[in-house]
Amino acid sequence: MKYPGIRAILIGLAMMVGTFVVLLATERLFYVVLIIGAISVLKGLFELVMYLFKSKENKEAHHVQMGLKAVYQSMLVVAMADGELDEAELATIQGIVHQLTDEVIPVETLTEAATAVGQDLKAVLKDIRQYAGQIDPEMKTLIVRAAVHVSACDGRIEASERAQVEKIASTVGVAKMEVERLYEEILSPEEDAEPTPA
Fold this sequence. Notes:
Layout: H1 6-22, H2 27-79, H3 87-101, H4 107-119, H5 121-132, H6 137-152, H7 159-172, H8 176-187
Helix pairs in contact: 1-2, 2-3, 2-4, 2-5, 2-6, 2-7, 3-6, 6-7, 6-8
């Protein structure tokens, strides 16, 4: 059977139903079969619940992993919009990945991944679109936020980088208005709580 525990549930139910037929034959056998059937049903329910619970955890972990892959790929897509991966982009990508996963990606790995992304951009965007169908809205916003950070990391936003950010946002289903809000949030300098005296 597809789900664990279903067989035990069916056997237990069959035994419990069968006990009512046996009831006419002997009373003692009735209780024995009824108890065995109930135990089988409980065992099956336990196995099924454990499977469903475990499956849910695995699905959630899988979705988070897909979201993180999409974040990583979106940053590389934006970084390679001008055809090269510069120092500021490298540092920003490493910083964001470290912040999200506590892992440090070596420069060589990032350079190789960026080259691969630059060679087959359509395939990468297709992957991101596929991941987007399985992740939550917060992760989609994180994907675009990371892409905006990479596009703005050197203090100037090139048209090609901005176009890639908008393409990524469209791919994952984030509205253009949200992209504008993210750019404003990231580009606007933090204001001091107290005004500076004149």
